[in-house]
Structures are given as structure tokens and as C-alpha cells.
Design brief:
By secondary structure, this protein is α/β, with parallel strands linked by helices. It has 9 helices and 12 strands.
Length: about 290
């Protein structure tokens, strides 16, 4: 049985990954940000030596997209240097080989102006400090672990263990008669529990290292997603009103198109995540309970 080390286990995805592995009887150690500062190379090496994992999953990240615009060095330290520290520790490995590392990444590595889904090998062109820092993390992992490094890009995440758009819509449905939501950004709403299962399936497939896209199938705008949330709450979806992203100007530009392709899964014999609406319906009881 493989030993797993989940770094960033206190986050939304990290909690679901630890829960998924634990439910399957897996040997898993979770380290939160308080437990391990991944910008500290010596601490990372010590943590990996102590855990002796077969697989490390890096869920730790600077995810404050807007703040990264004015704190790019700090974001780079976490998202790029931290990932490199983990890759270096995994390269030493234990026993007969290197430790496998799954680096969680993002749609923000792309320009966000495509019209068809971004393939795993599509050209990258991040337009934000956050995207640049995450791309640098990807590159470090793939360079240092060419045979044992996996990059799993995901996007538009929601789950029961953190702040996210779905939780916000559940709250606003109770608080406001109407909600204005942008209808000119398109992506793939994705449940963190589905991503967790996808990561486990990827590792257990024994497939070759490389880049994979773990998002739900289909696509939607934030407006579409908000209407679906209202519908699942039994509320009138027409209370959600469409607006444009120009209404909400932010320091970091949001990608207009964040739809990712999923062809990479076929080469490792793993099915892609299913339709986003079906996933949201499966997730919704837990999301509603978490929202109180």
C-alpha cells in the first residue's frame, strides 16, 4: 500500500483528498500550512524524510489572485519556490526510486482568450502574477521530476470545506432578493471531491508523468452556475441577473475562457470527470449543510 503525504491538507481540496484516502483505508499524512512552510527548503526536506511517502500531493498554494498582483515575490515563493523544494525532496526519494509528486495547478497558466478547450499541451501565456507563479511551479516539478512529476490543473473549485462561489450563492440567496452575476466568463465548475478522486486514480493508474486537466465536463458561466444553485435551493433562478465583468473591476484580470480539455486521461486509462451539473447535484447536500 502506498504512503501518501498531502501538503496543504487544511485547504478545500486538501481536506477532501485526505478524507478520500482515509475512507479507502489509505496510509496518509496531512500537513497544513501551520505544520509546514513549503518556502523553507530545509523544513520540506525534513518533512519528506520523516513521512517517507511514496506519493506527495502539493495542495499548498498562494491563491489570493488579486493580492498576488502587488505581492508577486511572496506568491512566487509559495507557488514556485515551494513546489521546487518539494520536487527536490522527492527527487531524493527513498528505497529504489524517486517519490512521485502531484502538483496541483490552475487554468490561470493560459491566456484565457481561446474559443475551444485548452489541451494539456496548449501554449501557456499567464496574464496575472498568480498565473506566472503557478506556471513556474509546474515547470520546476516537470524539470526536476521528469519521470515522477505530475501536474494536475483544475479550476472553478467548490467544496464543503472552504469559501467558494457556490457557498457564497447559497448565502446570498438567503440575504438578497436578487443577485447580479457575470455572464461573460466561461469555465467548468468543479467539485473538490471529484478532483481528489481523480488524483488518486491517476497515481494508482501507474501512468507516465505529465500534465492532466481535472475539471468537470461541459462548461458554464458564473451566471449559469448561480442559476443552478438557486434552482437546487428551490428558489427562483430568475432572481439571478446577468451582468458583465466590467461591473467588477479587479486588480488581476479574470480569464474570459477557462475551459480545459481532458484528452490526457485516456493515455493512463482513467475516465475524465463527468458533467458539472451532475456533480453539483451530488455535492449539494453537503454544500448546503456546510453553509448552515
Amino acid at each position: 500500500m502506498s504512503r501518501w503525504l498531502v501538503v496543504g491538507s487544511g485547504g478545500m481540496l486538501g481536506q477532501d483528498l485526505v478524507a478520500t484516502l482515509t475512507a479507502e483505508g489509505g496510509d496518509v499524512t496531512g500537513l497544513t500550512r501551520r505544520d509546514l512552510d513549503i518556502t523553507d527548503g530545509a523544513a520540506v526536506r525534513a518533512a519528506v524524510r520523516a513521512a517517507r511517502p511514496d506519493v506527495v500531493v502539493n495542495c499548498a498554494a498562494w491563491t489570493a489572485v488579486d493580492d498576488a498582483e502587488t505581492h508577486e515575490d511572496q506568491a512566487h515563493q509559495v507557488n514556485a519556490t515551494g513546489a521546487a523544494h518539494l520536487a527536490e525532496a522527492c527527487a531524493v526519494g527513498h528505497g529504489d526510486g524517486q517519490t512521485r509528486l502531484v502538483q496541483i495547478s490552475t487554468d490561470y497558466v493560459f491566456a484565457g482568450d481561446a474559443r475551444t478547450p485548452y489541451a494539456e499541451h496548449a501554449p501557456v501565456a499567464p496574464r496575472t502574477a498568480y498565473g506566472r507563479s503557478k506556471l513556474a511551479g509546474e515547470q520546476a516539478v516537470l524539470r526536476l521530476l521528469p519521470r515522477a512529476g505530475y501536474v494536475v490543473r483544475t479550476a472553478w473549485l467548490y467544496g464543503a470545506h472552504g469559501s467558494n462561489f457556490v457557498a457564497t450563492m447559497i448565502r446570498l440567496e438567503r440575504e438578497r432578493p436578487t443577485v447580479d452575476v457575470v455572464d461573460d466568463q466561461r469555465g467548468q465548475p468543479t467539485w473538490t471531491a471529484d478532483v481528489a478522486r481523480q488524483v488518486v486514480a491517476l497515481v494508482r493508474s501507474g501512468g507516465a508523468a505529465g500534465v492532466f486537466h481535472a475539471t468537470s465536463s461541459g462548461d458554464a458561466t458564473w451566471y449559469d452556475l448561480a442559476r443552478e444553485v438557486f434552482t437546487l435551493l428551490g428558489a427562483d433562478p430568475d432572481r439571478v441577473r446577468a451582468t458583465s465583468s466590467s461591473t467588477y473591476v479587479r486588480p488581476a484580470p479574470r480569464p474570459a475562457y477557462s475551459v480545459l480539455g481532458h484528452d490526457g486521461w485516456a493515455r493512463v486509462g482513467v475516465e475524465a470527470i463527468g458533467d458539472w451539473r451532475l456533480a453539483l447535484r451530488r455535492a449539494f447536500p453537503a454544500l448546503a449543510r456546510a453553509a448552515g
